[in-house]
Amino acid sequence: MNKAVTYLTICTTKFTEARGYAQAAGGPYLANYNAKCAEAETLLAKAIKDNKEIFREPRVDPSDLPKLDAQNFVKLEPMSEELNKVPELDE
Length: 91
Prior knowledge:
Elements: H1 2-25, H2 27-55, H3 80-84
Helix pairs in contact: 1-2
């Protein structure tokens, strides 16, 4: 649970940093941002409460978190070939 608290703390910090961009975009982007930000803050509050009441684990410093496994990331493929491809109808 201590890792979850740390990850959610980082997440809410990043949401706070991005607030200006969401406000500049406005409309549905801002509504989606506000919903996701509120969800992250709710999860953080629940994780902190559960850690205090149930798990009682010490906080983890963000630098001590394990590195994310690259296997879990999406493999990015270059799109230049697809963008330069002639559509079938134009042939």
